[in-house]
Design brief:
6-stranded mixed sheet; 28 strands; 7-stranded mixed sheet
């Protein structure tokens, strides 16, 4: 139990491991996800997608589809009632392909039928004549070869963001260079894209969908349907994971078009293969770095070129490039910096938001460089980081001063002091690389230890008007006072519903009648003001701040009313006065765009640090890797829910492990080769090792309760730590992730 300043118990308030209201339902399989939506008279939607990464569309014949019994509508771009293009940051993506396709899987036509299999057969019956053309699949060529075809009319550059600090000298006492590559990672959520559109009597549409940002969906959908925003009403359906992939639209406009055309509810559920084509992925990256330092290991300069492949459309690539540039040297003090970060259009699958958002790719490169620098200077990997670590008062590459606690040196020392795991027991095959397949009983297995450090921005950056809205209502339900918290914030599995209730209990704790069990969080929808996106580790900060402010306003009004009626019970007050309701918006401190030439500016709201140590066993003969242990130290400012927080650090570390060792969408000539969980591998419980965690609380005075966003930072530092450990075990340079068995087994390992 924690206590308020007034000494009353908070029960399940801020700082406690409050139980998730959806937890038991999800564990038992009773939770209703968006794919479970059902209405008796609904139709099923299906999408016809391009088989080509780049082609002209010469004709589309929907007649064969319309001739199939049970088909109620077949629509193409000619049937889009309003604007034909949408986009998260730029309206560059067609609702349905018009005269060409720019990536494999681009939607060309949509079908509504009375059975899902009928809808799929009808989509397959549509006859499209394509004229394939050269696909642009190399991001460097797209950017730097003048003869390269343009993917979009304006050229192939999404954004170029330089960062310039000081004057990079031509040389230093110690110089290390490296080229690094990050493959295309998928968010791999377990609940595929799905939702239902229901036509309304007022000519509008009610959309129930799994998404990350209800209001930005509404902003994009309404113009394409030629409807005012108030006639496009969205309610969050159960979300089976997101990690950035649900920031962009998938089936929302398509289902709405079909519902409005047929006058009946339309449900669309992607299968797993279609899901791989139906959402954005993590940007693949190719990076060139050069670090110069003194013989003692003090950084003198960093030069970097970061090329991010954004695929066929913009999505959030503008912001991803900004993150990669601004965080491109990591949490280190560097007096001279020259970074050039680029985003490119190609005919590869579109890329956008994924946990870590541009900082992941850069972190892999700069941490690999720090290990190379440590070796060149004859220093321990921890020591090289200690000598260059930022702290409160340090400047980032953008010139922004870190004005809240940043105890990186202490975090590194604590991590290094954690006990190491014991030697593997060859009798337990589960502890061996290859597991129970009995590929080894310990022969050819070598152990390695590696470290990784990451810094991640929290909340939206570069001048974005980042805010959230909360409505809090205290009313009588029967004879008992009750609190209703209403926001549009998407619960995507991170535990936000729990956090909102915890904050309400904390801020209204002086009213014992409003204790545990008396706080309800309403379903998220567009009837309340925007809460922004469930991304950028921002919802506890921004929506938490909005709920806190609304509760404070309600508390103030209740106290004023009770002061006018001394001795009156809260229930009697509400019976006399009626409900007490307040709505508040919360904004964090303003940020600024990066200077387009120098990259300077206070572009970020908050920064978070995480450090990892990885211990691995590697079978150097077969190239198999077993992560024996991950240890992490993370500063979270203030723990709102310790149990959920630990889950976030474990989950972020697992996705970092996946990127390091197994997760990659294989794309060849613009075509995806492995759109299934059979061939796209994600870590299972057998791959995820035990974790040692140390969670620090150094409050940020600018944030509600001093909290610091925590969901993304562990995704950064876990990947380079694991790769560093594999390098230590094998002696191989390993400059690309994910590491494949042939990267180890087909190369001569060090003795």
């Amino acid at each position: 139990m924690t206590q308020t300043a007034r000494g009353r118990s908070l029960g399940e308030g801020v700082g406690t491991g409050a139980i998730r209201p959806d937890g038991i339902l999800k564990v038992t399989g009773e939770f209703a996800y968006s794919s479970d939506l059902y209405l008796a008279d609904m139709l099923w939607g299906a999408t016809l997608r391009s088989p080509h990464p780049s082609a002209w569309i010469r004709s589309v014949d929907v007649g064969p589809a319309l001739a199939i019994p049970g088909v109620h509508a077949v629509l193409t771009h000619e049937d889009v009632p309003g604007e034909r293009f949408y986009g998260l940051e730029h309206k560059d993506q067609p609702v349905l392909a018009i005269d060409q396709v720019r990536y494999q899987g681009e939607p060309v036509a949509i079908v509504a039928a009375d059975h899902p299999e009928t809808a799929r057969r009808a989509a397959a019956a549509i006859v499209v004549v394509y004229e394939p053309r050269e696909a642009v699949t190399d991001a460097r060529r797209a950017l730097f070869d003048p003869a390269c075809p343009h993917v979009l009319p304006g050229g192939n550059l999404v954004r170029h963001q330089p960062v310039r600090v000081g004057s990079v000298p031509p040389s230093a006492e110690v110089v290390v260079t490296g080229e690094y590559e990050v493959g295309m990672q998928d968010q791999a959520f377990l609940g595929p894209e799905s939702g239902m559109a229901v036509p309304a009597e007022d000519g509008g549409v009610d959309l129930f969908v799994a998404t990350q940002w209800l209001h930005v969906d509404q902003d994009q959908i309404a113009p394409c349907l030629a409807l005012p925003k108030d006639k496009v009403r969205l309610t969050l359906a159960g979300v089976g994971g997101a990690f950035g992939a649900r920031e962009d639209l998938s089936m929302q406009i398509h289902a709405s078009m079909l519902a409005l055309r047929t006058g009946r509810p339309v449900k669309i559920v992607y299968g797993r293969e279609e899901s791989f084509f139906g959402h954005v992925h993590r940007h693949p990256a190719r990076m060139r770095y050069e670090h110069g330092a003194t013989r003692e290991g003090r950084l003198v300069y960093v030069k970097a070129e970061i090329v991010l492949d954004g695929g066929a459309y913009c999505s959030s690539s503008l912001a991803v490039v900004g993150n990669a540039a601004s965080l491109g040297v990591g949490p280190y003090e560097v007096p001279n910096i020259a970074i050039d970060a680029y985003g490119a259009y190609t005919n590869n699958p579109p890329c956008g938001a994924m946990r870590g958002f541009g900082a992941v790719q850069a972190c892999y490169a700069y941490e690999s460089q720090m290990d190379r620098l440590a070796e060149a200077c004859g220093l321990d990997p921890v020591e090289i980081r200690l000598r260059n670590a930022v702290s409160q008062g340090s400047r980032l590459a953008t010139g922004q001063v870190i004005d809240s606690p940043a105890p990186l040196a202490g975090m590194l020392r604590e991590l290094a002091a954690m006990p190491l795991p014991g030697a593997a027991r060859s009798s337990d095959l589960r502890s061996m690389p290859g597991g129970v397949a009995q590929t080894t009983h310990g022969e050819g297995v070598r152990r390695g230890i590696g470290y990784g450090v990451g810094i991640k921005n929290i909340c939206f950056s570069e001048g974005f008007d980042d805010y959230s809205t909360a409505r809090v209502r205290v009313e009588l339900l029967g004879d008992e006072p009750h609190v209703l918290v209403h926001t549009a914030a998407a619960e995507v599995g991170q535990g936000l519903v729990t956090v909102q209730a915890q904050i309400a209990r904390t801020e209204l704790a002086e009213f014992p009648e409003l204790g545990a069990g008396r706080v309800t969080v309403a379903p998220a929808d567009t009837t309340v003001g925007s809460a922004g996106s469930s991304s950028a580790s921002r919802q506890s900060y921004v929506t938490g701040g909005a709920v806190k402010a609304a509760c404070e306003a309600v508390r103030e009004r209740l106290n004023a009313l009770l002061a006018e009626r001394p001795g009156l019970a809260l229930a009697d007050l509400l019976r006399e006065h009626g409900p007490v309701e307040e709505t508040r918006e919360y904004r964090h401190r303003p940020t600024r765009p990066m200077d387009p030439l120098t990259g300077q500016g206070d572009s970020h709201t908050q920064l978070a640090l995480c450090v990892h140590r990885a211990v691995v066993d590697v079978d150097v003969d077969l190239g198999l890797v077993k992560v024996v242990e991950l240890a992490a130290v993370q500063d979270v400012g203030k723990m709102i829910n310790p149990t959920a927080l630990e889950g976030q650090i474990h989950g972020g570390s697992a996705q970092g492990l996946g990127l390091a060792l197994m997760e990659e969408i294989q794309v060849r000539d613009g075509r995806v080769l492995n759109p299934s969980f059979t061939d796209y591998l994600i870590p299972t419980i057998l791959d995820m090792p035990p974790m040692k965690l140390s969670i620090l609380e150094n409050p940020d005075p600018a944030a509600p309760y001093g909290l610091r966003g925590a969901g993304e930072p562990p995704t950064l530092s876990s990947t380079p730590a694991i790769v560093a450990a594999v390098r230590a075990a094998t002696g191989l340079p390993l400059s690309r992730v994910p590491i494949r068995p042939e990267d180890i087994a087909l190369s001569p390992a060090s003795p």
